[in-house]
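Our collaborator T.R. sent over the components below with a one-line note: 'Predict the complex.' Nothing else. No constraints on interfaces, no templates requested, no preferences about which chain binds where. So this is a plain run: every listed entity goes in together, and whatever single assembly comes back becomes the starting point for the next discussion.
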Amino acid sequence: MTDRPEFEPAQHALALYHRALSGHGCEFLGYEDDADLWQRPDTATTVRLPIRAPVSDGGSLSAAQWYRVAVTHRALHQLLGTFAFDLDRPEPLFRRLRPAGQSGDARPRLERFTGLFARPVLAIEVFAVLEDLRIDTAAPRLFGGLADSYRRVRRAALQHRPELTVLPPRAATAEALVRLSLGADSVLAPPALREPIALVTAAARRLTDPRASVESSAEAAIRIYAVLAGLPNVGVERVARPIAFADIDADIDADIDADIDDPGFGRFGAELRLEGDEQLDVRLVPVRYRDAPGPRYLGQATSGMPLQEAILRMTPDPAEPGESADEDTDDYRARSLAAERGDVDVTAAARPEPPPEPLPHDHGPDLDDYHHAAHGRLHAHGRDEFLYPEWDGVAGRYLPEWCLVRVRRPKSVRSDRNYRRALAEHGQLLPGLVAQLERVRPAGREVALRMRHGDDLDLDACIEAMIDLRTGVEPRDAVFASMLERRRDVSVVFALDLSSSTAERLPPDPAEPKRVQRILDLQRDAVTLLVEALDRVGDAYGIYGFSGGGRDDVRVSVVKDLDERRSPAMVHRLHGLVPDHTTRMGPVIRHLGGRLERSDAATKLLLIVSDGRPYDLDYGQQYGDEAVLDYALADTAHAMDEVRGRGVQPYLITVDPAGADYLRQMCDPREYHVITEARELPAALAQLYVVARAANQPAAAPANSAVYSGASSK
Amino acid sequence: MLAAPFYLPVGDEVEVFRAAYEQRIPVLLKGPTGCGKTRFVEHMAWELSGEPLVTVSCHDDMTASDLVGRYLLSTDGTTWLDGPLTQAVRAGAICYLDEIVEARKDTTVILHALTDHRRMLPVERLGTTIPAHPDFLLVVSYNPGYQASVKDLKASTRQRFLAIEFDYPPVDLEAQIIAHEAEVDAEDAQRLAFLGERLRNLDDADIIDGPSTRLLVYVAALISKGIVPRRACDVALVQTLADDREVQDAVRHVAHAVFPA
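Returned assembly:
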């Protein structure tokens, strides 16, 4: 096994691959410790994979193949409907033993199913293995290009299975099922298990039929559970002989009386229970490339809870029928249902945090990397990281390559409800705003003469051409006049402050005392309004959020890049912005100014919307607390100067009532606007944009003026 | 044209179009690029007793003159040349303006008199108005997802058409189309349609523009000419759909998963 992490470089491509196959976006996380796979279950929104693929050096299986198979397996659970289980849906392979689902039962369907069994944990183990078998059988059929990789990965997984001879009968029979699911030809098992293994195999093998569905797995699970529950889970039989899965049909025909299609087979009823049986529940050794059954089966975005625990937590306490075993149950249940329907923003703040991992900025003075973190040189890696200098106003010099800007995409909120609400709320401003913008929009056309193509003949050029013709000179063919569009006039970038203070709730509006509003909500509303207006008048725009967590982690969240087309995803990302740490404005202005500079618009505007003064964890603190504000203001002012020199006009708009005190030190009075009432932000930002746009309009040629594109006349 | 252009209906679009033609109601076809809008119009023009079809691909620089006509200079002076729209109006053809929103906005205004009860084309430079031939029908198409809002039809234009919405066909139907168009075997066609469906999941997430049926037909055409499927996917899908290396890798992984080496 290699020590080099193999997961991270391919992480993003694997996540996209998973999304393409399954149609579901998931965050991919790597985990270091693979000792207990049960503690690493996937959730509805998170896929967890080891950072090192469990493949042998020099083996025939590569890490890339292993990851590809592991991700394909997970995606196929989505594609083939594992999580869309329906108790009532018919399936074609078994005589139905499932009871009808109770309408009105709000529990997730899988939970209702496992609730039918005396041992839900065993039932879910069996169901999960059967689903794995169905998925892995379908995989090479659907993805022929992966057949070889799949074969290698399954063969490698078989080499790490426990011997049946060291397991009690129930666990040994269950293990035989796992081996069957991994494509084994035979197992070495005690002769006494021949019949139960034959019955388990007969039921499980039906799932290799292309028509098999998740409901088929449920039917098979009922039968196999019945076989396993009838076996003791204590005692070990050391004598073993090979049992070939291929011979099972002959065995059943010859001397096994039980019939999995018998109406009495697998009826829910009394089970064999020995003293201490519950303590000896079957826990199958996980198959590494498969995901451990977990909250994903219940559509939950919660992490760290294996499915069995999830099931048990939600199984009603027999002593209190109808009541939840845990007070969180209702919430889990509601979220599960909503997540399955896609109604829940599973990326929002309510999502439980993943297991604690070292924070990238956890640089305390006691740690070895403190000095480097505080004073060392930074490095940009990849195309999403950028280094910028910082102006040290105290020392009067630039600190080269001092800030690392990390560009990223914010999470998406799969709903445009807030967008529609914002438009409904502020939509009355839209017609006036569009009218104002159109008034300052210059004439978009000009007449170009002596063109090879055009709407009308250019009279002068025609006369010259006719003279040429009659004097025997070859005439020029540029005899047309054409109306040409001027290039797009305005590019604007909106930079929204995402510092943690934007999460603060505003005092209740007397008109709507129950409504909770934050600065960030108003920022979104303001941008929503403007975006609609800009789309109508045709200005190019980009929307970015910014925050900071120290000079090595200035975050720029791209809602819509300047040259990106508008899409529903833009709306989803706008509402996926979340408050996050601090406000280091200088590097953000430099970064977005550079982005605007590359645009070919005549007018380039940078509108920064903030709720307070620039501040970061290491933004002048080296000179003492009293220097922090001046240091941050000086750097921000320098950054604004720099982008002005590059043809970008910056503007600051703040809802901080004390903003004028420091903004006047940074910029011209025409370049900032202070709003004392935060709720006026949407209207104020729109008005500032109108004013900024008009003030920066390039001198336009009078409409219908003629410009010459060709050479002068002979 | 000897044979009908191949088209497999997905819904009732053939019946709706035929009814619209009989009533001479202008038709707007909405749908993503490469989903079969143009082929549908060609098919319908053939079906409607071989109506002539004039197709114009609209673009940023297209003006009203490009549609209506213009004066040209000749040795004898100036000569008027009908544009494609004027030709169609005079001859009674179906005029299909593909991606109408790409044309400059003033272009769409000249369509107004043609698409209401007047059915006439004013030709300003000739100082005349041409009544439309009784068989004339205007059909326009556009892709609402492309530069939505920035380029959109005005309500005053939209409401002169009935709209038929198109989308990529279901996998089985798309496989039939691919097999027919590129003459590949059914298995490869099915795999390509399945691959297309998978990659369109990335379109839903706004990561790429999903592959069109036309693009899948190109891949199939390469395969039918002996190019190894994975290589065909690489040149006709991976490189076409994305420039970003990681997205290319993801698209390539999906293609390699679908097609054996």
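Summary for T.R.: The first strand of chain A starts at residue 27 and ends at 31.
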